[in-house]
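Quarterly update from the structural biology core.
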Amino acid sequence: MRNIPIVTKNLLIINILVFIATYVLRGLNIDLNDILGLHFFLASDFRIWQFFTYMFMHSGFTHILLNMFMLWMFGMVVENVWGPKKFLFYYIVCGVGAGLCQELAQYGTYLVYGLAHFDSLRIGTTVLPMDVYLNMMNTVGASGAIYGVLLAFGMLFPEERMFIIPIPIPIKAKWIVMGSIVVELFSAIGTSNDGVAHLAHLGGMLFGFILIRYWKKHPYSGYGDFGMNRGHQFFDRMKNTWEQRGGRDTGNATNGNSGSWSNTSQSNNANNRSDWDYNAQKKQQQEEVDRILDKIRKSGYDSLTKDEKQKLFDSSKS
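Predicted structure, tokenized:
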């Protein structure tokens, strides 16, 4: 847990603690999912703050396990790129946006089936008052926000390859994101009673996409570019380390020749040529590393040739 960024770590802790509290309080006949979950906005139990609290509620162990695993896997990377404040803002916007989309989907169902014209609804052999039925339209889970984080990862690292069980070959992040969108879209269209808020997942990704596009077009609005140009910080740090080491080496070479001015003119010329050649070589190596790093930013690490990867590896050791 020490290596997990602060916001991702706290989100994991809060979700787990709330999940435990849900089971503990259930023994006291207190249903936190009913209180903090997002009810349909025409239901009597709806509260505006449920757009925020529903993100920390989960319906079961499998539900929270999958969500927290995805938050840990993708949230760590995105937060390290964007920073805690920006990542938290994005996470909340995606979660609230997912809730809004789910409310719109439920309202569509409400209109299509003409529920406003009925006082009660028969489900099987049970007749439910309409108010009770509307209160049953309750959404819980962090999935909408986490699908937004998945989208951010795919846009930051589109060429990054990952293994998805049970597929035996690595898949690029951009294809995983696109595949998730297709699956959720067809699931939303083809299934209606599977208990999964597919449109909330798509809503989280939609709001995340709009937000990222806005940040790209307005890099100086509020928080700056939100890290959209820092997707490969690892390689930038490698470059800075290489430059610093190169600068120290150059300084040491110069200091080592400081006493040679008392020697003959021939020795001075030889040393000057040696320093010039050394600096020229360093400059040439630096330009090559810069070119390789630019290629990584544009096309990903996998686009490098074997020779370029070796040069980058050698430069990190020098």
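The longest helix spans residues 265-299.
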